[in-house]
From TrEMBL:
Residues 525-641 form the Response regulatory domain. PANTHER family: HISTIDINE KINASE, SENSOR HISTIDINE KINASE. Keywords: Phosphoprotein. It catalyses: ATP + protein L-histidine = ADP + protein N-phospho-L-histidine. It comes from Comamonas testosteroni (Pseudomonas testosteroni). The modification 4-aspartylphosphate is found at residue 575. This is histidine kinase. Its EC number is 2.7.13.3. It is an enzyme of class 2 (transferase). GO terms for molecular function: phosphorelay sensor kinase activity. Residues 291-506 form the Histidine kinase domain. It comes from the Bacteria.
Length: 649
């Protein structure tokens, strides 16, 4: 009910008394507003009359009938009662003015049936049954004029919009303002299209109930025409679809979650594919590095032994200087080969317990020269710094790589800091004690894209000729082999901080074994088992120069034949991988079968994970990795001969 309608009904005490007296009368009666000429109040009998007439003819018996409106105007103009017969309605409407304190406050309307329904006539009963059905269906049913003005609605719709069934007259504002603001344009557009084009589809919209809450509804409508084809009225049915919309939202959210999960899976798959490509690329490079390092180690081994033997025979000082230069070059080449093995993560394990400050002190001057005079290099050691068990050469190589990267990022000028400190942390396992090595610079920093690829083989941001893209993979290989962890922190314009976590070792620093030590021998007999002719011959000459008695064999079966025919040897020096059907395990089995307790020293240019350790797991013999010097070989031989460790049974 509009605010003006409420003011009309509450404007005079007499009106309230008349309305109360009409409320329960069986006779259809109503009060009309003299200003708007609209029904301000109608009792239940009058409402039922309007419903029947609206459903049957699509008209309001007072507001839409010209004769009724004329009689109303006559009543108000002449200030006396007026009546009109409405055969279509089956009632006579009687209008009478109602005055209070000399003012016209309302027009009373009484409806009297023109003729009583014949006994046994089924039409009124059918109408009552139809109205009962319409008012008890869960659907909202409404009627409107062709211009869209709603003039009747069933009880469920009244309850939803108004919270009551007693309405003085239809409140058009309530109907329109109850539609959700976001849906009003779409709903009006549908209704206009329906009226103009007769659209058969419906519209869904949100409608606010009397409790202030919105629910979703779906509306369809149909135009009722007269026999002449004139549009009489529109009948609409509105169904509550709030539960359906709720499930629809749930399904939409579930679908969005599935799509997001799918996108996440695709992203993970793309990452895994990138990682797979990187792993495959790394494996390919590792195989290449391992193969090249094996051949290079053999060549360097031969060159090293020959240069050592030449050095013993040459007396000319100038020639000795040249030999020293050759020897140093061979050592550098050996270091390069070792770096290749380190990159491929197949490095021979030569780790020792060392203090970081000891190792750093030995390379500090080298590092300062490498970074240049315009780089301020500072080295900080934490309190009670622990030891680490690492391969010293690769530890030093990793630090130099990181320092040079920092220098290049600062364009040869800036502040570079190397810090050592104890740290307790957990990485992919229980917490442990580490020694952290942090290298930081104030250079250009890295983007996320660059940072994601720094461990990729051959990836570099340096100009052509200044970077190979192998430095950071080598650092990563060293850290992994040391059972450590690496972290990279960098932002564009904010510099870079790389931290290596190396497991802390509680043992004391180990003294390094002297590399050049005189080898004392007693003329023992050695059997060299090697399938590479150049390696075999060079090794034989070198050991012969050391005073050993040397025999050689190019295959395992030949060596077994020599031993079977009575060859007496004190030690067998054998390559751990031999061509042919018989390998070193066959040799060891043959020694045990014959009860020969001959110690064996294996040598190889391969990395540990490429060795046939499965076949040798029951034969724990020492392995010496090439390239090694003749003195290293002589010391190892003497250690074995002096210990005289028997062949295990």
């Amino acid at each position: 009910m509009k605010a003006s309608g409420r003011r009309f009904l509450n404007s005079d005490p007499l009106l309230r008394c008349v309305m109360d007296s009409m409320r329960h009368l069986p006779l259809p009666c109503a009060l009309l507003d003299p200003v708007s000429r609209k029904v301000g109040f109608g009792n239940a009998a009058f409402e039922r009359l309007i419903q029947r007439h609206a459903l049957a003819h699509g008209l309001h018996p007072v507001n839409d009938d010209r004769q009724a409106l004329n009689a109303l105007e006559q009543c108000m103009a002449q200030a006396q009662a007026a009546s009109v017969d409405l055969p279509l309605l089956g009632y006579s409407l009687q209008f009478a003015p109602l005055y209070s304190t000399g003012n016209l406050v309302a027009v009373q309307c009484h409806a009297q049936q023109l003729r009583p329904a014949p006994t046994g006539e089924r039409t009124p009963r059918l109408q009552r049954k139809m109205m009962k059905f319409i008012n008890n269906t869960p659907a909202h049913i409404w009627l409107s004029r062709p211009d869209g003005q709603v003039f009747w609605m069933n009880d469920p719709l009244k309850r939803y919009l108004y919270g009551t069934l007693e309405l003085g007259r239809m409140d058009q504002d309530r109907w329109l303002t109850s539609i959700h603001p976001d849906d009003i344009n779409r709903t009006n557009g549908w209704f206009l299209d329906f009226l103009v084009n007769g659209a058969e589809s419906g519209v869904d919209f949100r409608l606010r109930g009397s409790d202030g809450e919105y629910c979703w509804f779906y509306t369809t409508a149909h135009i009722v025409h007269a026999e002449s084809g004139q549009a009489l009225y529109v009948v609409g049915i509105t169904v509550n679809i709030d539960d359906f919309k709720h499930r629809e939202r749930q399904q939409a959210q579930a679908l969005a979650d599935i799509r997001q999960e799918h996108q996440s899976d695709l992203h993970k798959m793309a990452q895994m594919q990138q990682e797979l490509v990187m792993v495959q690329k790394r494996e390919l490079v590792e195989q290449l590095a391992s193969g090249v390092s094996h051949d290079l180690n053999n060549l360097l081994f031969i060159m090293n032994l020959n240069s050592t033997m030449l050095k013993k025979r040459v007396q000319d000082e100038q020639a000795l200087l040249h030999l020293d230069s050759i020897h140093k070059t061979i050592k550098k080449a050996s270091h390069l080969a070792a770096q290749m093995v380190s990159f491929s993560a197949r490095k021979p394990q030569a780790a020792a317990v060392m203090h970081p400050q000891t190792m750093m002190s030995d390379i500090e001057s080298l590092m300062r020269n490498a970074v240049g005079p315009d780089v301020q290099l500072s080295i900080v050691y934490g309190d009670e710094l622990g030891c680490v068990k690492v391969d010293r050469g690769y530890f030093e190589n990793a630090l130099i790589n990181l320092a040079l990267n920092g220098r290049d990022a600062m364009e040869l000028k800036g502040e570079l800091q190397i810090c050592f400190f104890n740290h307790h942390a957990a990485f992919d396992g229980p917490a442990r004690d580490f020694v952290a090595v942090e290298v930081s610079d104030n250079g250009s920093g890295m983007s996320e894209a660059v940072k994601a690829r720094i461990f990729e083989p051959f990836y570099t941001t340096k100009p052509v000729g200044r970077g190979t893209g192998l430095g950071m993979p080598m650092v990563l290989g060293f850290v992994r082999q040391s059972d450590g962890h690496i972290e990279v922190h960098s932002e564009l314009g904010q510099g870079t901080r790389i931290r290596l976590y190396l497991p802390r070792c509680d043992r004391e620093e180990e003294a390094e074994t002297p590399q050049e030590q005189a080898v004392q021998n007693r003329g023992e007999s050695l059997l060299i088992l090697e399938d590479d002719t150049f390696v075999r011959d060079t090794l034989a000459h070198a050991l012969y120069d050391l005073g050993y008695k040397v025999s050689t064999a190019h295959s395992t079966d030949v060596a077994i034949k020599y031993l079977h025919t009575g060859l007496k040897v004190d030690l067998i020096v054998s390559d751990i991988r031999l061509s042919g059907d018989y390998g070193p395990a066959n040799l060891l089995d043959a020694l045990m079968d014959r009860g020969l307790q001959i110690p064996v020293l294996f040598t190889t240019s391969h990395a540990p994970n490429e060795l046939p350790m499965g076949a040798l797991q029951n034969h724990p013999y020492p392995v010496l990795f090439r390239p090694f010097s003749i003195n290293e070989l002589g010391l190892r031989i003497q250690q074995i001969l002096h210990s005289r460790t028997p062949v295990p049974h």
